[in-house]
Amino acid sequence: MPFLDDFFIRALVGGLGVAIISGPLGCFIVWRRLAYFGDTIAHASLLGVALSILFDTNTTLLVFITAVFISIFLLVLRLRGDLAGDSILGMLSHSTLAIGLVIISFMTWIRVDIGAFLFGDILSMSKIDLIIIYVSGAVILVVTIVIWKPFFAITVDEEIAKSEGINTRLIEFVYMVLIAATIAVAIKLVGILLMASLLIIPALSARNLVTSPEKMAFIASIIGCISVCLGLYSSLNFDSPSGPSIVVVAFFIFLLSRLLVPVYHLVRDKLSKES
Fold it and tell me: What confidence tier does 143 reach under pLDDT thresholds 50, 70, 90?
């Protein structure tokens, strides 16, 4: 594909793929108030990056394995019930980030651009990265569709879902794996520190615009794609960092959704009264 020889086009194609994946998953993060969970898994991915450098293996694979391991560890601690959920997330989030940084600091024989991992380096995306994003993304979306109804049932009322025979622990674990996989393939886009924002902000914006769960997932993906496009073009024109630029655009879209929707409803109600 000759058009993929341009680094900016590769960045755009890769960013759109990640945005499409992130939309539906981000909706569940918003509905279940799991924002801190997304941050924890994202921060834990730095440990995976450090291990991949140490053992000279594929970064995406090690990040995914590390994120899944942290998810399992989190579930085990939650099942024990002697620690509050937010305390567990806070501990794992900062501990794994710190361990990753310490491991990288010890590897003095290797020069590591830690900023690229923390804030993204989407413009260095390769064709192999695009293949990983779209193949993994297709699998993630298929699994998301499969667990959509049972996970939504858990989100509405976990006790009723259990009484209907839904294995809530299994569904939650599958969702954690999907988040881990998404973060693993998306690190190059906005980086470890900003990845959770790409999951959360478009979903929050979509919630301001629609009420249907399916429509919210679709609109969240669309908003994510718009954020990627405008963020990359603003980065190109203003020489700003690409990952943060994407998040800034997503944030402004959120502000617009909060400001303009009430105005729209006000005008609509006024027109309906006049007619």
Answer: very high
The number of residues in the chain equals 275
Q: Where on the phi/psi map is residue 81: left (φ > 0), alpha (ψ -120 to 50), or beta?
A: left
CA separation for the pair 158, 168 (Å, rounded): 7
Report pLDDT for 171: 87
Write out the E strands in 129-262: none
Q: Which domains does the chain have, with CATH numbers?
A: 2-193 (1.10.3470.10)
Amino acid in position 73:
F
- Long-range contact set of residues 139-146: C-beta below 8 Å, sequence gap at least 24: 139/181, 140/21, 140/25, 140/178, 140/181, 140/182, 141/20, 141/21, 141/24, 143/174, 143/178, 144/24, 144/25, 144/178
Rounded mean pLDDT, 185-196: 80
Who wins on pLDDT, 61 or 111?
Answer: 61
